[in-house]
Structures are given as C-alpha cells and as structure tokens.
Amino acid sequence: xxxxxxxxxxxxxxxxxxxxxxxxxxxxxxxxxxxxxxxxxxxxxxxxxxxxxxxxxxxxxxxxxxxxxxxxxxxxxxxxxxxxxxxxxxxxxxxxxxxxxxxxxxxx
Length: 108
Known about the structure:
Elements: H1 2-28, H2 32-43, H3 51-58, H4 62-87, H5 94-106
Helix pairs in contact: 1-2, 1-4, 1-5, 3-4
C-alpha cells in the first residue's frame, strides 16, 4: 500500500540522516576512515561481528575494537532517536513511532 511505502521511505530517510551524522562526527574527530569500517557493525547481529577484522581495519587490539563498535552502536541509537524526535509534535509517542518505523523496515 502507499502508506507502507511512505513509511519505509521515511524510515530509510531517518536512517540515512543518522548515518550521515555519525560519519560527520567521526570525521570531525579525525577518524574519517573508521566509519566505513564500523558501519557494517551497526546492522549486524551481535554474534555476527568479526571483531578481529574490525580491529585490523582500525589498527586497534580486539578489546578496543569491541569498545569502538559498542560506542558507535550506542551513538547510533541516540542520534536516530534524536532525528525521529525532531520530526514529532511535542508530547508525541517517540517509542511508538520508533516501533512503527522498525516494523515498516522489517516489511521491506
């Protein structure tokens, strides 16, 4: 349906904005290459992340790579929530909207 397509496009737009902000934050921190290495970890299941490969890519030990992945995933959630909340009316149900968009993406 048209509504479903709109919701999917909207959710993808919000994801794009979030990823762009994260890329910009890492670039501003002097680590522009790190985003490309870490990006794949954002959508991966926790058990599916190859931390050894991430560590090699970042030039870190595995423990530091795990911390970097954890921080980026946490920051992703924070920025995504911020981006969504900026589009909602005051007092709107942010968690409800997040669930709605997650469901729209799952139907893709």
